[in-house]
């Protein structure tokens, strides 16, 4: 599949164009440590061209296109992505090491599901509505596209996060410059080919890959009206500062240190099985994973053994092997980061019940054994900072109040979970967790629900109508008493 992609150019203004410099970014297989492809490293002048193309698309009529027409074009793109799911799965496994069965079931499927949800929401979204105040004043309230959007995405779920930003932006009438992660740019090349095939107007979607310096140039570009970013909290703070200086709109979906509160009436085996994917999918490289498992002190050993048994049952190896459940980490740098956390945990007094190092039978590739740490205290670095690897720490608590306090006592607030046989009790505990999403007994909130975080986990929400909200600017037009009532055509512009 890689050989069939055109990776010599950037996609700008509806055309494949040569970059302004010859620098290239190598794509290295996490499983073999070999270079499998390379893509152009965009120059600042390429960013200028992409932003200008997006602006030209807006000014040329895209922002005034009817919602019905935008829905039709996004649906056409959705059909193309759906038809190419096997190719996307292979590319993502190759470039960032997600186990192929998870790439097929999650990485290549969730983008289509995200688009389906947004297409459904867009048909009811109030792009135009008339409101009447208590004093009798009336206004036509419109929600207009925010403008040119810079979408900066990470490497861990590259297609899903790209689509999560691109879809609502296009439905709102914005034009997008997508900046891919250097570690995983290949799927974005296929996405650009499909955008072209689906017939989106030139300039509505532009795609490039860039180093950190040029990426920052895009974020602070005066022609960009909004930045949407998914990635680390450290990078998010930098982006927030840059956008704040220019009062540029920004949405940030950042890191997490999510807690699973296991109540004393929970079933140990069922909880461990739920955490198979809830804590370890994509080899631990997902920001919403439950990496702190809070268990009642009197049942600590029981839950620890159940979790360790589950982890030991997960085959680790070549991500292209159908049997593999834990693959390599994305880079040597990421593996070194995880190993530093493991070393620090041991120094602080935690112990690895299972895992804790590199697998001896895998001398090549950036592998770290899936690890369950015990004797973890809430204030340890391994319990406070995002590791982004296959590492879970068990923390014992004395009662429900302490469990909630521990769950909330980190700089993050992205996700969480409660496990219990008493659903009413579980709901009460979930309501006390200071986080954007809580999963009850492993049940996901779904793609129609807003997703995002509090505290250091971000600003704003994605998915559902809240996801479209971040790409529009509301405008109120006061209506004189004798003015004809404007047609709102339901919730879709005509």
Features of this protein?
single chain, 494 residues, alpha/beta, Aldehyde Dehydrogenase, Chain A, domain 1, Aldehyde Dehydrogenase, Chain A, domain 2, 2 domains, seven-stranded mixed β-sheet, six-stranded mixed β-sheet, 37% helix, 20% strand, disordered C terminus, Ald_DH_C, Ald_DH_N
Mind telling me the C-alpha Rg? 23 Å
Number of helices: 16
Overall pLDDT:
96
CATH architecture of the largest domain: 3-Layer(aba) Sandwich
Strand content: 15-25%
Specify the structural class: alpha/beta
Which term fits the overall shape?
globular
Overall number of domains: 2
Q: Which superfamily, in CATH terms, is the homologous superfamily of the largest domain?
A: Aldehyde Dehydrogenase, Chain A, domain 1
Query: Taking strands numbered 1, 2, ... along the chain, how are they ordered across the largest sheet?
Result: 14-15-16-13-12-17-18
Number of strands: 20
What is the CATH C-level name of the largest domain? Answer: Alpha Beta
CATH topology of the largest domain: Aldehyde Dehydrogenase, Chain A, domain 1
Poorly predicted runs are 489-494
């Amino acid at each position: 599949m890689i050989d069939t992609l055109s990776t010599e150019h950037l996609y700008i203004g509806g055309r494949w164009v040569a970059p302004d410099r010859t620098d290239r970014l190598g794509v290295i297989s996490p499983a073999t440590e070999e270079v499998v492809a390379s893509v152009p490293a965009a120059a600042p002048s390429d960013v200028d061209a992409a932003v200008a193309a997006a602006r030209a698309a807006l000014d040329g009529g895209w922002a005034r296109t009817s919602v019905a027409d935008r829905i039709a074009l996004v649906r056409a793109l959705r059909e193309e992505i759906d038809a190419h799911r096997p190719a996307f799965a292979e590319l993502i496994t190759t470039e960032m090491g997600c186990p192929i069965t998870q790439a097929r079931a999650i990485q290549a499927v969730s983008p289509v599901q995200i688009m389906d949800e947004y297409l459904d929401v867009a048909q009811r979204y109030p792009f135009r509505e008339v409101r009447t105040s208590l004093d009798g004043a009336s206004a036509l309230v419109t929600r207009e596209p925010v403008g040119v959007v810079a979408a900066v995405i990470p490497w861990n779920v590259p297609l899903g996060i790209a689509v999560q930003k691109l879809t609502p932006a296009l439905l709102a009438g914005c034009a997008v410059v997508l900046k891919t992660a250097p570690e995983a740019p290949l799927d974005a090349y296929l996405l650009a080919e499909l955008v072209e095939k689906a017939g989106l107007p030139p300039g509505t979607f532009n795609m490039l890959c860039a180093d950190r310096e040029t990426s920052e140039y895009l974020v602070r570009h005066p022609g960009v009206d909004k930045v949407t970013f998914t990635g680390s909290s450290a990078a998010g703070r930098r982006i927030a500062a840059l956008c704040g200086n220019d009062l540029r709109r920004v949405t940030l979906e950042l890191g997490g240190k999510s807690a699973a509160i296991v109540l004393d009436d929970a079933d140990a085996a069922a909880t461990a099985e739920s955490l198979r994917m809830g804590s370890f999918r994509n080899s631990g490289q997902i920001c919403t994973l439950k990496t702190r498992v809070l268990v009642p002190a009197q049942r600590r050993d029981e839950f620890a053994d159940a979790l360790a048994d589950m982890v030991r049952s997960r085959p680790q190896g070549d991500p292209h092997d159908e049997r593999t459940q834990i693959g390599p980490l994305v880079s040597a740098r990421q593996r070194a980061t995880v190993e530093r956390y493991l070393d620090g945990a041991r120094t602080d007094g935690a112990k690895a019940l299972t895992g804790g190092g590199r697998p001896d039978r895998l001398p090549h590739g950036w592998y770290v054994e899936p690890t369950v740490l015990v004797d973890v205290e809430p204030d340890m670095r391994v319990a406070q900072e995002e590791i982004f690897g296959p590492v879970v720490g068990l923390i014992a608590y004395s009662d429900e109040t302490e469990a909630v306090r521990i769950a909330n006592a980190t700089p993050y607030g992205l996700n969480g979970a409660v496990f219990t046989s008493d659903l009413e009790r579980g709901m009460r505990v979930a309501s006390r967790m200071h986080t954007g999403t809580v999963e009850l007994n492993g049940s996901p909130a779904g793609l129609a629900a807003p997703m995002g975080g509090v505290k250091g986990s971000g600003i704003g929400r994605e998915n559902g109508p809240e996801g479209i909200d971040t790409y529009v600017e509301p405008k109120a037009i006061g209506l004189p008493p004798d003015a004809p009532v404007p047609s709102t055509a339901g919730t879709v512009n005509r």
